[in-house]
Structures are given as structure tokens and as C-alpha cells.
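Example (one chain per record):
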Amino acid sequence: MSADDPDSDSGADADLETAVPDEYSPYTLQQADGDDARHAFWADVVADRVEAQEPDEPIVIKGGISPSGVPHLGNVNEIMRGFYVAEVLRERGYEVRQVFTADDRDPLRKLPRTLCDLEGNLVDLGEVDAGALGRNLGSPYTDIPDPFGCCDSYGDHFSTIIQDSADALDVPIDLVSNTELYENGDLEDVTRFVLEHQDRARDVLSKYQDKVDEAYVPFNPICEECGKITETVTSVDLEGDTPTVEYECTDMDAGDQTIDGCGHEGTATLREGKLPWRFEWPAQWQELGVDFEPFGKDHAEGSWPSGQDVARNVLEIEPPVPMVYEWFTLEGEPFSSSEGNVILVSDVLELLEPEVLRYFFAKDPTKARDFSIERLDQLVDEFDRLEAIYFDEIEADEDERAFAERVYPLLVDEPREERIRLPYTFAAVLGMFDDPDLREEVARKEGHIPDDAPEWAVEGALARVERARNWARRTGNEFDYELKRSEIPDHDFDADTEEALEELADFIEAGHDPEEIQGEIYETAKRHDVDIGDFFGAGYRLFFDEDQGPKLGPFLAKLDREFVVARLRRER
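Predicted structure:
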């Protein structure tokens, strides 16, 4: 559901163990309900609960977002949690439909500081027509012109990015526009039902929202004069084939500001407005036949209790099976478009393979995690370990093995034992070379590509190099340097330094591990009475034509030994 609603409990620190009824609680996910069977994968537990409801087919799994701004990686959480449950149910022979609603009839309540184009490039509000957006505060997203001029509306622009993100991860969602549901009349019957039972709706809503009086009507028309959504309905006429409401366009509270209404008095049909969000979410469940919906912990205390209450006691339907997932952070901080702390799926897939990102979302949803670009190598190493466990290439404990065997086939198109994964930091080292042939040559010399490797496996392995190179450049880390491989950079060393370099070359030629080489750099400098900083600087000059660089010992250990020895001796 939309996390952008004015009454949303987005600031609540929900107690996830008690936020949903016990019979639906998805915690602890390792333990199956009512027996001693243990599931290695949380999605199996959730699928058990969906299956226990004996749903009709297709089973409908839903998520949703209000396309108010940049659809970042955090928004994909809901898509991916639904995807894994859908895949488990498909394995069990069910037909499954995964829908994702764009709650694009929501009004624009504030101007975002940051937007993005369809390629994922972030821009400040000042780089687009901010005045046009400002004039449309209070209007539905689908009635606001696209600030980039490429899509039908503001809402359509950001919905397109959501669809592109799902496509990039090979998740088959049906993106459903709320605006279209209203305009096509799909939500007309349920809206009419809510208005026919206004007393019941008011009684339920009053438990969750202040200022619900006898004049409250659960419908928000769109003003025909100014295009803004108004919350003031003065009368309701449900007689005849086309029910209508009379309204007055009044001011709208939007956080710390007020959006002025134009004062127009008019008439709207039920297709020319929207239900308030606490009624709209259950209305979507009814119209779309939703059987399961995951949602973030911000909705666990307020939104879900009111949603199931409205479903049962206003609409007279059963709510879907819920699942609360924890948020994750980006570099230790909450995702924030306004602060620029966002990353899009398209950005992430320039840094790692889709299956690695899918692995991140396969982890236990009840645990908060940090997505760190700086430490992306650790995530990739985790995935590589999972893959190696699956193919029985390394030792693992029983739980690790059970998880790998269950989850890995859901992450890749097809498990292929001949695949090759270059260690991510080694791939970053290879990214210092511009020559693709040289990258492959070094990878083969270092034993990472077998002589009999199929061509598709070699191509896949080397594709990681470009991603690791992008990672190094994005973070400016120790691998963000260009190795001068083709010719020796200009240098001018004194005799002591040259002798020390010769001795270091002999040490490396004899064969030693990264930390031994790092230690020997210090010892060699001391033995030849060369300043340690100057000696490291000599190494950086020879390999990068720079005065600084990565940790030198581990770096040299990752290069082919013959080249390192020759360069230290200034031979090539």
C-alpha cells in the first residue's frame, strides 16, 4: 500500500511481534505452524498460511506504492517479498498473479527535492519546471504533467520506473493504476457500498482517526474547477445508475502546510474522485481478490489494524494474509529522496548481477539490514558462498546447506555448475586494466578461469569486472586506479630505493601471500634505510603513475607474478 498517506503511521516504531494477529504472525519464520517441521526459507512459511486459506486461483499477491517521487531500492522490498511467496506457490502447482498497485490518484502534497529521469539520473527540483508542480499541489499524480516531458503524467513517469525495476529483476508484476480502476468503474461498486454504509464506516474509522463526525463522508471528489482533491462532501445521491456527490472545494491540510481550495461547489460521480486511503486499501483487496500482501513495519500498528477492521466490519470480506517486513537502510541511514540518500535498482545493477540483488531480498524479512555500497564486496562474497554451498564445493553447516539448496534455484534462471565467479575485489583489480584480453589473461594466470571453461562461463565471469570497476569508481575506494600496464611510468629513484625494489621483486618471485608481501615492503625499506612512505610511493609510481593507491601488498598479490616482478625490476 501507499506509504505516502497523510494519516500513515510511518513514524511508528511498530512492535513487529504483536503488530498482526497471532494466527497470521509471520514470526518466527523458521518454524512451521502447528508441527515440528522446519522451513529453511521464510517464504515457505508464508505460503503455508496462504494455502491454509484455501484460496481460489489465481492466487493474488499484492503490493503497492504511491508514485510520489523517486522509486528507490527500498520500495522494491515489497515487490521482492511478494515475488518469493509467489514462486513458492507456483512450485506447489498454483496459478499466481502478482499485482502491484500504483496509488496514482493520491494527491501531490508537497514538492520533492529530488526527482529522477527514466534512466535513473537524479536531478534537483530546480532542474525541472518546479512552478508547474507547485501549481498542481493537491491534484492527483496522474493529472500532473510529467516534469520530464516523456510520459503521460507525473504518476505515469514514476510508475514506469517501478515497472522497469521489476523487469530488471525478472519479477513478473501486473502494474495496476488506481486512477484507471476508478475511471473504468472497477471500484465504483465498492465505493457505492461504502457510501451506503456510511454510519458503519464512520464508526470503524473513528477508532483510528480523529475528527470523524456525523458530517464525515468517506469519499474525496476531484474539483472540476481547479483539479484538486477535496475532502468536503455536502450530500450524497446513490439513487439511479450513476450515483453522485455534491462537494465544496475546501482547503487541504498537507503536513506543515495548507493547500488552498478554490471554493467551487459542484457535482462528481464516483469515478471522479477516490476513497480515503483507509478504505481504499481494503477496497483494492476486494476488487483485485487479494490473498496475500506484505507491507513495511510502518503500516503494522495503524494501517493494518484499520485495514482489516474496514474489511471485516464495513466491506464484509476477509482481509488477505499479511506479512510485515523490516525496513533496510542505505549506508546506515534511512532512504530519503529529499536528502539524496537513495539508489535505484538500475544503479545497483551496474555494480552487481541481478541474482546477487535477488539474494539480498531473499534474507529473513524480519531483520533490519543495511545495504552498503561501500561494502558491496561483502554481499557479493555472501552470494558466491551460497552458490558454492549449493554446488557442494565448500563445507557448510546444516542450516546453511538447507538454505542454499532451497533458495539458490530461485535466484538464478538456471543452476549451472560450470559458472565462474571471479572474487569481487579481484574483479575490481582487473577493472584497473582497460584491455579486455588482458583481464582474461590475468584471470587465467591466477587460476580463476579454467582452461576448459565454456565460452558462456568466461563471458559471465568477465562481465563482473566491469561491474566491480563501476563499484570502485562510485565509491572512490582502493581499486579506483588505472594500472599502467603497457609502459613503465617516468620515475627517478635513488640507488637505495632501486636496490630495495630489486630485493622486493626477489621476495615476490619466490611466492608469498598478500600479508607477507605487505610486511616485506616495510622490512625491505628498513633494511635499505629508505623512508617507508617514499618506498610505498615508489611502488605507486611504478604501477599507477600516482603518489598513492590501494594497500600495496594485497594488490600486488592479486596481479600475475611475472608482471609484478618485471615491473619492480623496471624491465617492462
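Caption: Confidence is low (pLDDT under 50) at residues 2-36.
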